Amino acid sequence: MLHNRYCGDWQPSPRWQATAYAKRRGFFEAHPEHCNNLVPCPACGYPTLERRNSYEVCSLCG
Ligand SMILES: [Zn+2]
């Protein structure tokens, strides 16, 4: 499974299924128009990072 696309086909790992985090991140992954040109943080799910796979610190949870 690819994990490096910008948005749209992210699936939470089984332990995160149906959590608020999974719903939030899933929404932003599926709706890049709501991401404000950012990508969702892998920790909190909010679109706070400029690039995926960079080691930026999230402004919310970092
Ligand atoms: Zn975060």
What do these coordinates show?
Residues 40-61 form the Cysteine-rich CPCC domain. It comes from Thiobacter aerophilum. This is Cysteine-rich CPCC domain-containing protein. The structure is a single chain. The chain has 62 residues and is of the alpha+beta class. It has one domain. It is built from 1 helix and 2 strands, in the order αββ. The protein has one helix at 20-30, and strands spanning 39-40, 47-49. A two-stranded antiparallel ribbon has the order 1-2. β1 and β2 (47-49) form a beta hairpin. The radius of gyration is 11 Å and the shape is globular. Zinc ion (ZN) binds next to loops.
Secondary structure elements and pairings:
Layout: H1 20-30, E1 39-40, E2 47-49
Antiparallel strand pairs: 1-2
Residues 41, 43-44, 46, 48, 58, 60-61 line the site of zinc ion.
